[in-house]
Amino acid sequence: MKPYCKMKILVTGGNGFIGHTLVRQLLNDGNQVKVIDIKPVKFTHPKLEFVKKSVLDDIRWEMRDCDMVYHLAAELGVINSDKKPLNTLAVNIDGAERSSNKGRQPEKPRKHLWCF
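-> structure tokens emitted (116 positions)
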């Protein structure tokens, strides 16, 4: 058994290309997965929970019981960056800060993976 199996894992941006693949693998490994994204996940699984929310929102409640966080949420594409540069910065930088360990309970340390 892999050491990270049977954990409660939060994936921000879990509907993106990398996030979608990661979520499926985490579920196949027996983990309970919670996805935060602005677009719904396109499949169901008994151990999958979807929360329609932006990483710019307060996500501490969703993080409270998670053992690990994979932060994959980002505003993508040159077009988005050109048309809405401040939104791109907010999602990519502020979203990373909000998904950090600020929402964790001190007695429950959590592993965190940042992907940019």
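The first strand starts at residue 8 and ends at 12.
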